[in-house]
Amino acid sequence: MIADRIRRPALLDRIVTPEQAAALIRDGMIIGMSGFTRAGDAKAVPIAMAARAKTDPFKITLITGASLGHDVDRMLTEAKVLARRMPFQADRTLRAAINRGEVMFIDQHLSETVEHLRSNQLGPIDYAIVEAAAITEDGGLVPSTSVGNSASFAVLAKKIIVEINLSQPAELEGLHDIYFPGRRPSRVPIPVVTCDSRVGFPYVPIDPDKIAAIVVTDEKDSASTIEPQDDDTGAIASHLIRFFEAEVEKGRLDLTLQPLQAGIGTIANSVLTGLADGPFHHLRMYSEVLQDSTFDLFDAGKLAFASGSSITLSSACAERVFSDFHKYKEHLVLRPQEISNHPEVIRRLGVIGINTALEVDIYGNVNSTHVNGTHMMNGIGGSGDFARNAYLSIFVTKSLAKDGKISSIVPMVPHVDHNEHDVDIIVTENGLADLRELAPRERAVEIIRNCSHPDFREALSGYFERACTRGGHTPHLLEEALSWHERVRTEGTMRLD
């Protein structure tokens, strides 16, 4: 089996243990590691790095595609290996260290990281640690269930450590489309013109002499943490389906819609699953993460093709998909995240972007990342890439958080990730606010009336009416605008007795 997966015989003598590979990493290095939303992540070497650091302390800058599985971020944080981390994370232990100021976290649009590496604003990468399903006869790396940034890490790094994962299906070979934009300022247009365009290689072309070590693993991806649909996420999906149906009636869309993107998470996943109950057909996806909902839509006969950068599934869905992968493979492609999230391609294809907000203010500004304006949750991820460039930029959120103590619709967000200019539609379980071509005062009326929870609607309306007496294009009471968040800080609730 190993010879089938490592098809360049000269590389077989570079197989080492995870501990031997981890010993190559030294203090102060910049490490690029595969992994995008818990899929296709390096699984053995980083754990060996954490174990080694307990007796041989060292610190690194760690760059990935997105979040990692197998508690790698937790273990590296507890071992005090991480000095700097970018561009995204979703681990509770690491999050706490970031918010204590112990790990410097750079929250970055997912399409930008490799651009910074390519132009020498960041790096150089000392080692790329990447998972692969196979190595070709020419030394090319066949990615596994994600591409993310790992292809560019491998090309740009000084040296590469490859984890060959025998648990990843050999049928993954041929799934990927590895394309690298040229260097600026003479870059030519990216030739992706449809969701199913294939414009690159099915493997990562590298110099095999850069491979310093190969570690053989047999560990499945961490399962998705997506929760099942509930009444609120079901209501959000229903509001969006009715909105899309109305857009079809107005001639702005047809029943195939436009290519769909959905951010990672329970709400966005539920919204896509809900499309199976609508009249839509021959749908296409041009997204980052292909979740359970992608394959639910395939099985419902609704989805024709899906382009992404990773496949992140629950245990039950992964068993269903990978046990019958040939059924889906010809309808799928995985790309580097700088292509899946590239503004040029998103705008060209007219993508409908559906992403999740932590909170939204009455004028349509969205906070996706910072709890109470100060404490990092996960990161902006790819939502900004899509929000700025999508045909329709949609943000979804439940109207209440923390058992009803916090309203997700607020007078002013204390941290802005997506400003009002990049937000077209807001949806909660209570309704949908279409903000297109509306002035700020009109937006406020729509958001308060349609999206806020009834328990907070009167307070929001009162704030807006009083702010309007002060005048202004975007009326605010600056001395009161963040009082709701101050109340959370001091009293743990936004509610007034």
UniProtKB/TrEMBL annotation:
Q: Which residues form the Acetyl-CoA hydrolase/transferase N-terminal domain?
A: 15-215
Instruction: Describe the location of the Acetyl-CoA hydrolase/transferase C-terminal domain by residue ranges.
Output: 322-461
Q: Which SUPFAM superfamilies match?
A: NagB/RpiA/CoA transferase-like (SSF100950)
Q: Which domain of life is it from?
A: Bacteria
Keyword DNA-binding (UniProt): no
Give one GO molecular function term: hydrolase activity
Q: Does the keyword Hydrolase apply?
A: yes
* Key words, A-Z: Hydrolase
Q: What PANTHER family does the record point to?
A: ACETYL-COA HYDROLASE
What family is this protein classified in?
Belongs to the acetyl-CoA hydrolase/transferase family.
This chain's protein is named Acetyl-CoA hydrolase
UniProt source species: Pseudorhizobium endolithicum
The organism's lineage is: Bacteria, Pseudomonadati, Pseudomonadota, Alphaproteobacteria, Hyphomicrobiales
